[in-house]
């Protein structure tokens, strides 16, 4: 059974995405959420229509003569249906699947190219991470949580943004399925857990290292380096 997405980006985050002011890592997270979420795809369409109208209204007077053309062009861009998907080339098919141990996951479209440039997987217990190309201070990575596995309790020095790509997980605040976006600030302490019989794959964006709250003290620093 497909479960519907319940945790969405805020309207202000979608607005920043639409006007291109997000950094690349957070924009990737929002774009990937959109792959899963018809609700936010509609909101993006509405925001882009508004932005287009604002842009048209602020066009300098010298261009007024062309404003009818300008509006017509904007309307046609907004109204143009997306091109149908063409048959995937072998390179594309390789990008759309990801293998972790004995598990295979299909990646959403927005993530395929960047995920193909991931660094090698590092694993600890039932958890594995692979860094994606990203710029300071944001770190983007794929995070794999095996079935019946907990991520140690931690808090955040910056923002932690997690998008579930496959499987499901829970923490103190809810239950998350593919497409759900979870944003934790420095005030939040949580312990993500995969309590299901299926493995979970997430996209994670951190703006600062996590701070772990449990486990043997000598393991806390390596754990921190593992995640960031
Ligand atoms: Zn959404």
TrEMBL record:
<feature type="domain" description="ChrR-like cupin">
    <location>
        <begin position="119"/>
        <end position="204"/>
    </location>
</feature>
<dbReference type="InterPro" id="IPR025979">
    <property type="entry name" value="ChrR-like_cupin_dom"/>
</dbReference>
<dbReference type="InterPro" id="IPR014710">
    <property type="entry name" value="RmlC-like_jellyroll"/>
</dbReference>
<dbReference type="Pfam" id="PF12973">
    <property type="entry name" value="Cupin_7"/>
</dbReference>
<protein>
    <submittedName>
        <fullName>ChrR family anti-sigma-E factor</fullName>
    </submittedName>
</protein>
<dbReference type="InterPro" id="IPR012807">
    <property type="entry name" value="Anti-sigma_ChrR"/>
</dbReference>
<dbReference type="InterPro" id="IPR041916">
    <property type="entry name" value="Anti_sigma_zinc_sf"/>
</dbReference>
<dbReference type="InterPro" id="IPR011051">
    <property type="entry name" value="RmlC_Cupin_sf"/>
</dbReference>
